[in-house]
Each structure stands twice: as C-alpha cells, then as structure tokens.
Amino acid sequence: MAILKLYGYTKASCTRRVATVLHELKIPFELVHVDVMSGEHKTLAFLEKQPFGQIPYIDDDGFILYESRAICRYLAAKYPGSGLVPSDVKAAALFEQAASVELSNFDPSASKAGLELLKRDMAWEYDQAVIDVSLEILDKKLEGYEAILAKQRYVAGETFTLADLFHLPYAVLANAGEGNDVMTRKPNVARWYKELLARPSWLAYEGEEAVRTTTSY
C-alpha cells in the first residue's frame, strides 16, 4: 500500500492540524511541500485535486480528500480504535457539539488574530486593529470555554478527542507575541491549552519542515 501523502505548506495551520492527527494516530505519511508563495496551489495541476486552490489535501493510496477537519475525521474513522471520535451515541453528540463550538465560536476570531500576528512576526504588512478586535472577541469567547473546562478535562468531556486537536494551530498563533496571554489568562483554559501543547503528536511536527517524510512508526 502506498504511503499517505499530505500536500500542504509546512508553516500553514491547517496543514499542521492534519499532520498532528497523523502523528497522534501514528500513521506513516509524506509531507509534500506546496509552494504557496509562488502560487503552486493555484496551478491547474493542483486545482484538479483541490478545486478551491487551498491547502492541504491528502492522497491516501489514490483517495483524494481536502478540508482539514474532514481529513482528520476520515483518519479517525479509518482508525476507530484511537477513540478520537467517540462511538457511544451520547459521547459522539458531545463531540459534535464541541467540534461545532470550535468552528463557530473559536476559529473565526482566533484565525483572524493568528494570521495577522503571523504577518507581524514575519515582518509583513499587518493590521493591528484586526489583532486587537479579534483578540478581544476571542477572550470573550474563552469565558465560555473556561466555564466548560471548569467542569471537565477536555472540551467534549473527560476524554481527549479530535475536537481538542482542532483548536491547537490557531490557538498557538493567536497566543503569539510579547505580552499576549489570551490562551493562558484563564486558569482552566490555560491548563487545557498547556496539556495540548505538550502532546507528542503536536511536538513531533517541529522538525517536519526539514524532514518532510515520517515513516518511523
């Protein structure tokens, strides 16, 4: 069977989201660098695989799939023993609730703030007003997270799931910069966030840009 290929930009958050789940599941994969700076993701060859010209997508022995959260769900379904998506009907419903919260309540402000903070870090043109407004919105949203995480260890309950991992890439970007503590100023959010940062699957990606291929599992 051919090794799974992940096509993405190594510094991109959605690419890292998928790579982290691959590491979590210990699935060997090849990270194929897409040169977004030169517009490779907008070429006809790329658009044949991903019609919106976005990253990442995977090629799993000829099966093409895009959208990072859909890819992660597919991988978890393919390896159900991981428990990253619960099988119990009530636990699954709580997982879907948490995943929906991430997409609708966390991602909009975290991604806006995170992308502008990344631009600032890269010495590119950025919009400080977007950072300020987005971090303010995110901080308010995290009050809900604080209430949830005061009662349970993870966002979907006492068990770690994909819903937790979905948050990580933009949480890290949104928390970047001197004096920025949006992810750590609330005690239960900070406890949860720091635990996720310490997971081997997240840390494994640090050298991925240089290695590109992970086949040691």
Short description:
The protein has 217 residues and is of the alpha+beta class. It contains 9 helices and 5 strands, in the order E-H-E-H-E-E-H-H-H-H-H-H-H-E. 53% of the residues lie in helices and 9% in strands.
What does this structure look like?
The protein has 217 residues and is α+β, with helices and mostly antiparallel strands. It has two domains: 92 residues, 3-Layer(aba) Sandwich (Glutaredoxin); 111 residues, Glutathione S-transferase Yfyf (Class Pi), Chain A, domain 2, CATH 1.20.1050. Helix content is 53%, strand content 9%. The protein has nine helices and five strands. Strands 4-3-1-2-5 form a five-stranded mixed sheet. α1 links the parallel β1 and β2. It starts with a strand and ends with a strand. The C terminus is likely disordered.
Proportion of residues in extended strands? 5-15%
Radius of gyration: 17 Å
Task: Enter the CATH topology name of the largest domain.
Answer: Glutathione S-transferase Yfyf (Class Pi), Chain A, domain 2
Average pLDDT confidence is 93
Level-1 CATH class name of the largest domain = Mainly Alpha
Spatial strand arrangement across the major sheet: 4-3-1-2-5
Poorly predicted segments: 209-217
Number of helices: 9
Order of helices and strands: EHEHEEHHHHHHHE
The coarse silhouette is globular
- Helicity level: 40-55%
Keywords: Transferase
Domain GST N-terminal: 2-83
Enzyme class: transferase
GO biological process, one term: glutathione metabolic process
